[in-house]
Amino acid sequence: MKIRLNGKNLSITCSTLLDLIVHQNLDQKAVVAEYNYKVVKQDDWEKVKINNGDNIELLSFVGGG
Amino acid sequence: MKIRLNGKNLSITCSTLLDLIVHQNLDQKAVVAEYNYKVVKQDDWEKVKINNGDNIELLSFVGGG
Amino acid sequence: MKIRLNGKNLSITCSTLLDLIVHQNLDQKAVVAEYNYKVVKQDDWEKVKINNGDNIELLSFVGGG
Amino acid sequence: MKIRLNGKNLSITCSTLLDLIVHQNLDQKAVVAEYNYKVVKQDDWEKVKINNGDNIELLSFVGGG
Amino acid sequence: MEQDKNDTLYLGKQGFSNRLLTGTGKFASRELIPVMLDACGSEMITVALRRIDKMDQTENILKFIPDNVTLLPNTSGARTAKEAVRIARIAKQAGCGSFIKIEVITDIKYLLPDNSETLKATEILAKEDFTVLPYMMPDLTLAKKLEQAGAAAVMPLGAPIGSNRGLEMKPMIEILIQNMEIPVIVDAGIGKPSDAALAMEMGADAVLVNTAIATSWDPAMAAKAFSMAVKAGRMAYLAEMAQDTKYAKASSPLTGFLRED
Amino acid sequence: MEQDKNDTLYLGKQGFSNRLLTGTGKFASRELIPVMLDACGSEMITVALRRIDKMDQTENILKFIPDNVTLLPNTSGARTAKEAVRIARIAKQAGCGSFIKIEVITDIKYLLPDNSETLKATEILAKEDFTVLPYMMPDLTLAKKLEQAGAAAVMPLGAPIGSNRGLEMKPMIEILIQNMEIPVIVDAGIGKPSDAALAMEMGADAVLVNTAIATSWDPAMAAKAFSMAVKAGRMAYLAEMAQDTKYAKASSPLTGFLRED
Amino acid sequence: MEQDKNDTLYLGKQGFSNRLLTGTGKFASRELIPVMLDACGSEMITVALRRIDKMDQTENILKFIPDNVTLLPNTSGARTAKEAVRIARIAKQAGCGSFIKIEVITDIKYLLPDNSETLKATEILAKEDFTVLPYMMPDLTLAKKLEQAGAAAVMPLGAPIGSNRGLEMKPMIEILIQNMEIPVIVDAGIGKPSDAALAMEMGADAVLVNTAIATSWDPAMAAKAFSMAVKAGRMAYLAEMAQDTKYAKASSPLTGFLRED
Amino acid sequence: MEQDKNDTLYLGKQGFSNRLLTGTGKFASRELIPVMLDACGSEMITVALRRIDKMDQTENILKFIPDNVTLLPNTSGARTAKEAVRIARIAKQAGCGSFIKIEVITDIKYLLPDNSETLKATEILAKEDFTVLPYMMPDLTLAKKLEQAGAAAVMPLGAPIGSNRGLEMKPMIEILIQNMEIPVIVDAGIGKPSDAALAMEMGADAVLVNTAIATSWDPAMAAKAFSMAVKAGRMAYLAEMAQDTKYAKASSPLTGFLRED
Question: pTM for this structure?
């Protein structure tokens, strides 16, 4: 399955958003996940099935002025 | 005949643009005439017939920065 | 007896510095007295005899920047 | 004979100011000569006999602001 | 003698008593942020949103910000109104509240904002119930349009971001202060406490300081200094200090001199 | 985070922790003076000496100054070194302590000091164990002579007395600060807290403010504002804040932007 | 020694050797205009277009402008891009040539331009083969868009029109000068020859001065003064004058002193 | 329109029509000096006196100065009034005329003058029929003493010698200009034509420029630029240009707008 993650093309096997985030080994509390231009709350990550061509952004808040 | 001259409504009897300008007693060399949003050169003033509802602007160049 | 008090000539009858200050009706605590270019403390005012031609300054501290 | 020339001690054999300046090989037109704190004009250089202990300054005008 | 307890700054519906806004950028260590906030009492602080890079995955600036401090996410990185709007929406949905500092920049040399894209983003986000604080070039006509569009304040720059050059744009900022209904917050360029004090004396409603605090060798002390300077400037503004004069005015009396005559 | 407790200013042998010096001139009511002092914590205050005029005999400014505040009598009214010396000696003998602010002025329009008479008075009084603080035109050569003569500090003017025009003489004051061994106290002209903060950021050791406090409509609030600004400026100086830069420096990261690509 | 004869300023396709642009507004008598032009050698001058008012019907400013001076009609009075475009087209059809100074203003207090409407008018008129000179708030992002849209130059204001306050916007104008491909002409606010010289030294391509000339008591002398100042500033720019330094640099030699030793 | 032909500057009994004074220091080649003088028309130029050093014996700057240009020898190198007096007397006896620029400096970092030694030298030399032009720190009290002592003008510094920092001492120079009877010539620090123009606009009687001309890559062009700027500033001063205003003042008429209504 091919998706676009953070602006780059990627082939993955994860089936849900949660799988993807776990697989990326990220600190879940720090992650802001956008699935096809819509933010998904942490509780709902496991409900979101990933399909071919999806656009996913995994973001976090950082220092800025 | 009612026209709009320089932003104000006016009843006139002049039939051409030239008549109007002559009637207004203006220095013809100083006048820039716009007839229905189109500039008319001095030579053509007599050719322009004025109709009811026309929009006419009589302008001149003045000092400005 | 003629003295110079605060830059002005004055005829007085007071015999001591204390007399002079009392006679001028001044708040003694606020007065700084200079007798012939020397400051005299309040306790010593009564000891200072005034002579003809003496130069006396009665000063006080005021607001200043 | 020992003199002080331009702030430094010097032993010389020249007998006149002119001799000294010639001996120093200077462009005479550029020289301002002070002999014992007094300026001597070029015409008078040969008249000035140098004595032991004299203080001589050979100066010139330079660029300055 | 004390500053009026009711001297509250309202941004949208929220009131603030501290008029120093701070930022989280450029700190040598994020642990310094809560110490800095404690030192200066700032009640609002900016944060930025970025794609997670595996190489640097540990960052979550939010956990260094105490709960009583209001978050002000910025849209840094946006080059268009559209990108700014997207970032703003994500920040809000991610639970950062409804404040948003709009920052749309295409100039990478001076980081000067794009006023017209900033206006477009403001128009969109104000309608979505954001409390919109647009970072902007000080420009009265544009500021009036932002006000019209529902901005909660305008944030004119004093000088380019991070330049520490102070109130280079002072004449235009003064014009904004004298003509805007909504608050004017001077953002960017403030390098020293005296700059902050001056902005407040001029009548600015608040200042935002990040770089000058974060990059000093003692950010907590610097933050405290800025906080005091902001308060000092505000008090001077409220006390309507005397105007300057052409000639001198003696501060000691001009009579009663002790002289030899 | 707190400013170093040992950041003491020494004038002669006496140490001061508050770097705002104040004055007693021009207050609408003398009762405001102790309130003002309490508000700002100033530890030294100027007073003047005048001939008593029967019509106005009640004044004794000293009773409005708390015991813990050091008196700094000035020699205002003096037009020559001789007159200044006489006033200084009277003030000392009258129990005002050994501090003296030398002020010799012949220019009645701008009240600018006479540097050469000031130097002469300093030479005399320093030998008589006064702690001499000369008010002066900022002039490095003269300041070095004052230092040589035993002055405890130099007090260059920022701008004419009472003019509230701030640090007009900034370039020369900076030169003094960078080259003097004794403290530099900016006196006269400081009109706003931002001026005071700026002087301290530049490295001035203290500032003296009278007119701007006394003539504001709330002298206690103004004094507090100046006190905070002085502290803020001092802290910034101690924290060695970052220098200004020509270009911008981003305060948000320049990577990881969320964009449509 | 003479300034390079080829130091030509191009606006569109037309070259100019004199870098002082003038205006026809506010002269006490129109007869002064040709005298003023003769005194300063300005090769381009602004005029405005107004509805004829019977009461004041005699005005035709054009006859006071010599043929060798290029007309620059402005769009003053326009509050929108649409109105500016209309005025521009009339001016061109009336035989004033293809130069147009775009001026779109809604702020009647400071007469500050509306940058976004100015951009819209520029986009339209540049396509119609006007040589477009937009009067603008100094704003790099907007200036780049104007360049993109086909403007022949940008005309940032130094300070509000007629204020004589000089280069208040200096920092932003410097940024424009350093980053624009098209010429930068400083318009509005220039009050003294030194302001004009400074603008040229900074690298501005030209300046436009109207009020300061027209309202002086001797417009011809003032115009001459501005013209000389513009040339002086341009020459200094071309001669790349030395930079300023922190310390002094002796102008007389530091050796060979005549001294008592 | 032309500047009044009788606008003559008198220094002592000699009249000058060109108000730019120049210097001979720091030129890459002395051959540039007459070219520079020809380009700018300066009528007075400084020279210095030094002990001849065999290693560099060829210098005689005088032969590069045309006869119609008045020499102004300076006393550079003097650290005391006594040394300055000695140099002045030598210069006069050597045929350089009676003009003397007094320069007494002990500060080798900023080359700031010693005002009190300068006054002493002025007192002595004025009695010996020198036309004395003292270089000085701008200080009104001292300037008045110089005037009293017979100085033909005062020459306050704009900024440290050779620093090109312009009119840093502007506020004090303005005070001198408004209060002195003798001419005020701004010397030192003038780095750009705009600085020179500004000094003249303020009412200075002349300016002396050396470093900025001599160290530019084209001294003749630079000198010409300064000369034009000085004339421009003088003309503006004589034309009493309009004051600056807080708000804008339209330069185009505020009536008769062509609008859609």
Answer: 0.91
